[in-house]
Amino acid sequence: MKQAYSLKDITVTIPTLNEEKNISQCIKSIRRAGIKNIIVIDGCSEDKTVEKLKNLNVDFIKLSIKKGLAYQRMLGVKKTKTKFIALFDADMRPHKDCFKFMINDLVKSNYAGVEATIKSYSKKLSYADKSYQEIMEVNINKKGPRRMIGTPTLWHTKILKKNNFDPFFSGPSDDTDVCYKIFKKGYIFGGSSGICYHLHRSNLRQYLKKYIWYGKGDALFIIKHPERTLSIIKHQLYNYPIKFSFLSLKRFKIIPIPFMFLSGILRFTGMIIELLKKVFGFKDNIYNT
């Protein structure tokens, strides 16, 4: 495949918080995919993440105070000097050709950013893993233009530098905020055929915590953008239980439907809890999922 740009034009940024079990394999897989420029921003890990980073020969920033995911991503964007920037997490493993496809899809279609196709890393999946992957299949893993992309993504660095992450988002929805700002300026995003493998959580309890955490991000997003409140509630109470379930049925996948219902309800519940915490002045809790 002919590339307009080299992989040397890409910097991968990775925020970490207690990722000692993941970070080594993540960085090794990124290097196998041809990327040499890697920046890790550690958000005050209490395990051996930083020790491992010292032995991996990567640029890394260690924060002295927990400031949240968006702050870490913001620093990564500021530090990046290459034409393109990829946003990854420690539990992601790109296919060896992932970045070649992503950079081609980004440049060819004139997108501001593209999101990789997400596949499961493990062959043995729990019910929750399979259900989560089905959400990826019906909602994420498709090419073409879209208004929102998450992680893993590849961007034009100059666009992110002008529309950087807002540290107000101590948890998720930092990417939703960025995409919303950029989309309003006339840019579009897209899906990519580049494949990235994701280490699913396996434990149903961890998934429940994850969607409550997503709800926290939804709350922060509508606090900053109240005009998007109905859209967020629609995503929680229509897209997950109804739209995604219907699309899953069309694929003859029935088993994930209860998980989809529960995921939407949990996001809504997490949002309400976070809004109430803000009203009553509770201290923000920054944690990893």
Structure description:
The chain is built from ten helices and nine strands. With 289 residues, the protein is of the alpha/beta class. The longest helix has 23 residues, at 257-279. 46% of the residues lie in helices and 17% in strands. The chain has helices at residues 23-32, 49-54, 69-79, 98-108, 127-139, 157-162, 174-183, 204-224, 229-250, 257-279; strands at residues 10-16, 37-42, 59-62, 84-87, 92-94, 113-120, 144-146, 153-156, 189-198. The model has no long low-confidence stretch (mean pLDDT 94). Strands 1, 2, 3, 4, 5, 6, 7, 8 and 9 form a nine-stranded mixed β-sheet that branches. Strand 1 (10-16), helix 1 (23-32) and strand 2 form a beta-alpha-beta unit. Helix 5 packs across helix 9 (229-250), helix 8 crosses helix 10 and helix 9 runs antiparallel to helix 10.
